[in-house]
Amino acid sequence: xxxxxxxxxxxxxxxxxxxxxxxxxxxxxxxxxxxxxxxxxxxxxxxxxxxxxxxxxxxxxxxxxxxxxxxxxxxxxxxxxxxxxxxxxxxxxxxxxxxxxxxxxxxxxxxxxxxxxxxxxxxxxxxxxxxxxxxxxxxxxxxxxxxxxxxxxxxxxxxxxxxxxxxxxxxxxxxxxxxxxxxxxxxxxxxxxxxxxxxxxxxxxxxxxxxxxxxxxxxxxxxxxxxxxxxxxxxxxxxxxxxxxxxxxxxxxxxxxxxxxxxxxxxxxxxxxxxxxxxxxxxxxxxxxx
Length: 290
Description:
10 helices, 2 strands, 74% helix, amino-acid transport, transmembrane helix, membrane, transmembrane
C-alpha cells in the first residue's frame, strides 16, 4: 500500500505540473488548447531522441527542450492565436475559435509524429533501478521526475505569488478588462503565459518519458486529464491544479493496482463527476456571485 501511495504521488506530481501549464494558457490567455497533450508527447519523443541518438540524459535534455518549447509556444500564439484574440474583441468567441484552431493543430502535430516515429509504443531505459523509500521500492526515474515536478512547480508558484510579474499575471486572470487601466499590456502578458504553458507541457513530457511508454496518439489522453484536473481544481487556480493532480495520480494508481488497470480512466471521470456535483466551481474555485 505504501509503495502504491508513493507511486501515485509521483504520478500525481507530474499531472499537477502538466495541468498548471494548461491553467496558465486558459486562465491568462483565455485559450482552450486542445493540442496541449500533443505538445507533451512531442517533448517526450524529443527526450527519447536526445537520449538514444546523442546520449544526452533527460535532465540535460530539459535545458535544450524547454527553451525551444517556450519559443514554439510564443510563435504559435503570435501566428495562430493573436488574430483570434483581435477578432474576439468584436465577436466575443475566443474560447470557441481557439478550440477549433487548436483542434486542427492537434492533428498537424500528431500527423508529424506518426510520420516521424510511427504508431508503436516507445520507451527508453534511464535510472530504472529501485530505491528504498520508507520500506517501499520505488524506481529512481520516478523519484527524479517527482523531484523535478516539485522544483519546477514550486518555482512557478513562488514567481506567481511573490513577484511583481506574478501579480500582473494574476491581475489579468481576475479581470482582463480592467488590467489595461493600470498599465498592463494584456496581449504581451497573455502571449508570454501561453508560451510558459507550452514549456510546462514540454517539461511534463520529458518527465513522463523517463518512466512510461508512449506513442504518437496518446496526446489526447493527457489533454483530457489536464482538463479534468484544471476543472476539478478550479479554473485558473494553481493550488487547485496541484491538489487535483495529486488526487488523480493516487486514485489512478490505487485502481490500477487493486482493481483493474483498464478502469483507471473510468475512476478518473467518476472522481471528476463527484467533485463537480459537490463543488461545481471546483475544489478551490469560487462560485458565481461570490
